[in-house]
Write a structure and sequence with these properties.
heterodimer; A: 440 residues; D-Maltodextrin-Binding Protein, domain 2; 2 domains; 45% helix; BP-dep_ABC_trans_perm (chain B)
């Protein structure tokens, strides 16, 4: 055999081996958001790839709003760029109804889907079929400074009313010392101030639409909720609150400038972290307030979930990854590697039954109570034609919610009156909902 | 006396120019400073300017979490590729418009510019669908094509402006000496227009480097440039300002260095023909 022949044979054997090896490889492209829990998961994926050596992972991490538009565009056009998506519980039912997501059936036996908190699972299911697996979940609650409350001589009950909150905010405010009784979201956006204001309105007994899809911003409940919000923020809130979102309020609270902050439960782990928070050892928790006489704690529920788009060409590998990342075993691994306080919260009952977690996370019980108080099928005490929580689960809500949020943010900045903002919200919402053909 | 007034005016002009330059540069300086702070320091009020515990921890974290060099290489290929292809198309086009203008030349130039007036989101879905069908999604080639088309009007306009400054007699002399069209453009026009072409090239590399709409919307894992690298550190729920600043500093550093060394050409290019 000549040297050339041997070289050719060798090269062809190498090529065959390479092709065979390549044929075994599946690469999953995972679109995700940038937050502490997701970043931690990326760091722990060696465990998954060791279990599945034939699956490689590629990450596309984007800011929440960019990710939402990027992923929506890809899934709506069946672009097939992603195999696993990180999406919120707002998108899951809408996309599942469009057949854009694969149902999560046939998960591994040890997955234990029954362990998922019922409120969370309910928001991710259509006709009792799970379409996304929760990675972490949150509701909203009151976080307050116990030292300031003691100094001011006020007590915040575990289930406060808005009157309790207003009284405490007044007592804790010391503007000369740069301490503001209450910090709430003011930045315009359906996921910013409208997440809070919708939950607040829910707790006042308000609703976005009546059963005929007529907007309800002219109702006394909305009027009272918005006026109380503006009064509290103008009298006891920080300056420039109309541009404050989650991060800005987190920063203010961590620096000891807020007496109370009502926001996502996931913030509890940040404000009690002594590395970043100057008030870590003096934070108390209470459930989202309700108006006296209204049995509704706001109904705020958000979860970041892993879903598989129907356009993926690797559904089994994607399912294996989703099962791994949202399993009890993953939570145990996080606890072992980084401690129980780092475990992704708000998804599994077993986590809240774990004594070690309860010890490591003083906010665990209140978080669980807040999540359990949510009913996404009945976010308002009045009859409604929609589901949702701090949002209305219709595709048009992003646009409608942001337009309304701009009105209330402008009212907080003093650019329009509360009355005018409510009237504008009513007009624009009704126009959009009519245009979309609801209630016909 | 006249000299005193002139010196004073010079001083005032210098101070105003420096003040303006610092004002414009301040956001970038702030990003660089923040990248050396801890997350807690990055959000503290009142903010600390220079007196804080400097740390390079954020750079380490960013490097650990992301494949910077892959994003960097994608940025280099996409920005240089789109600019070079744009120049290859634009030089003959600008030559034709500058030296052999027709009745519709001005209209064609205005029409080319009008394509810049369309908001990019208006054509996002059609382009996304075309790219999906021809397999160009998440590819560097796809981005090179899009960025070439986007920046082409600017390249043509800039080159047209430079070419108009070149005396047509020189080209005619070459033609009389028997130079073919190709040789006229390659050996007569291009060498004379090198400063203009260089500044067009630099400006378009910067524009392509910083382009964030198409580079975020048409890429996923493989061809994402540094704009996507920065976007991966932005978060509405969690404080990552210091890490975001470190990522931003790493993303703008190459183009800042390029801009610093080529500032003379850039300024010359941008002010060419402005004063006669």
């Amino acid at each position: 055999m000549t040297r050339t022949m041997r070289a050719l044979l060798g090269a062809s054997a190498l090529c065959s081996a390479a092709v065979a090896a390549h044929a075994q490889d599946t690469t999953l492209t995972i679109a995700t958001v940038n937050n502490g829990d997701m970043i931690r998961m990326q760091g722990l994926t060696d465990d998954f790839t060791e279990q599945h050596p034939d699956i490689a992972l590629e990450w596309v991490t984007l800011e929440e709003n960019v990710l939402r538009s990027r992923v929506t565009q890809d899934i709506a056009t069946q672009g097939g760029q992603f195999d696993v998506l990180t999406i919120g519980n707002y998108e899951v039912p809408i996309w599942a109804n469009q057949d854009w997501l694969l149902p999560l059936e046939g998960m591994p036996e040890d997955y234990n889907a029954d362990d998922i908190l019922p409120a969370i699972a309910g928001g991710l299911s259509v006709d009792d079929t799970l379409y996304a697996a929760p990675f972490y979940g949150e509701s909203a609650m009151v976080m307050y400074r116990t030292d300031l409350a003691d100094e001011a001589g006020v007590e915040i009950p575990d289930q406060p009313t808005w009157d309790d909150i207003r009284t405490a905010a007044e007592a804790m405010t010391d503007q000369d010392a740069g301490i503001y009784g209450i910090c709430l979201r003011g930045k315009a956006g359906w996921g910013e101030n409208m997440a809070f204001l919708t939950a607040m309105a829910n707790s006042y007994g308000a609703r976005w639409f009546d059963t005929e899809w007529q907007a309800q911003f002219d109702s006394p409940e909305w009027t009272e909720a918005v006026n109380d919000y503006l009064t509290m923020m103008n009298e006891y809130g920080p300056p420039g609150a109309s541009s404050n979102g989650f991060n800005e309020n987190l920063s203010l609270f961590q620096q000891g400038k807020c007496g109370m902050w009502i926001d996502a439960t996931v913030a509890a782990s940040f404000v009690t972290d002594p590395e970043d928070s100057t008030v870590a050892d003096s934070v108390g928790f209470a459930q989202f307030p309700n108006k006296d006489g209204v049995d509704n704690h706001g109904n705020w529920l958000w979860s970041w979930n892993l879903a598989i788009p129907s356009s993926t060409d690797a559904p089994e590998a994607a399912k294996a990854f989703v099962a791994w990342a949202t399993s009890q075993a993953y939570t145990d691994m996080v606890a072992e590697e980084e401690g129980w306080a780092a475990a992704p919260p708000g998804t599994r009952t077993s986590l809240y039954e774990n004594e070690e977690y309860q010890k490591a996370a003083p906010f665990a019980e209140m978080t669980l109570n807040s999540i359990n108080a949510v009913d996404t099928n009945a976010p308002s005490v009045q009859e409604i034609p929609y589901t949702g929580a701090q949002f209305v689960a219709i595709p048009e809500f992003q646009g409608i919610g942001t337009a309304v949020g701009q009105q209330f943010s402008a009212a907080l900045a003093g650019q329009v009156s509360a009355e005018q903002a409510l009237q504008n919200a009513q007009t624009s919402t009704q126009r959009e909902i009519d245009r979309a053909g609801y209630g016909e | 006396m006249a000299r005193a007034v002139s010196t004073r005016r010079k001083w005032i002009t210098t101070v105003v120019a420096w003040a303006l330059a610092l004002l414009i540069f301040f956001p970038i300086l702030w990003i660089i400073l923040t990248s050396f702070k801890t997350e807690a320091e990055a959000i503290s009020t009142p903010p600390s300017f220079l007196f804080f515990d400097w740390t390079t921890e954020n750079y380490g974290t960013v490097q650990e979490r992301s494949n910077y060099f892959r994003h960097f290489w994608n940025s280099v290929v996409i920005s240089i590729g789109s600019t070079v292809i744009g120049l290859i198309i634009a030089i003959p086009a600008a030559w034709a418009m500058a030296f052999v203008p027709g009745k519709q030349t001005k209209n064609v130039l205005m029409w080319m510019l009008s394509t810049k007036m369309l908001p990019p989101v208006g054509v996002l879905v059609p382009i996304y669908l075309i790219f999906r069908d021809v397999g160009l999604l998440d590819s560097r080639l796809g981005l090179i094509i899009v960025l070439t088309l986007i920046n082409l009007p600017i390249i043509v306009w800039m080159l047209y402006t430079y070419f108009r400054e070149i005396p047509v007699d020189i080209l005619e002399a070459a033609r009389m000496d028997g130079a073919a069209l190709r040789n006229e453009i390659l050996y007569i026009l291009t060498p004379m227009a090198v400063p203009g072409i260089a500044s067009t090239l630099l400006l378009n590399v910067i524009l392509a480097w910083n382009e964030a709409f198409w580079t975020l919307n048409l890429t996923a894992a493989n061809s994402a440039p540094l704009t996507a690298f920065i976007a991966s550190y932005s978060s509405p729920e969690g404080l990552f300002y210091a890490k975001l600043s470190a990522a931003s500093t790493m993303a703008i550093a190459p183009i800042l260095i390029l801009g610093w060394f080529s500032q003379k050409q850039l300024v010359r290019g941008l002010t060419f023909g402005a004063v006669k």
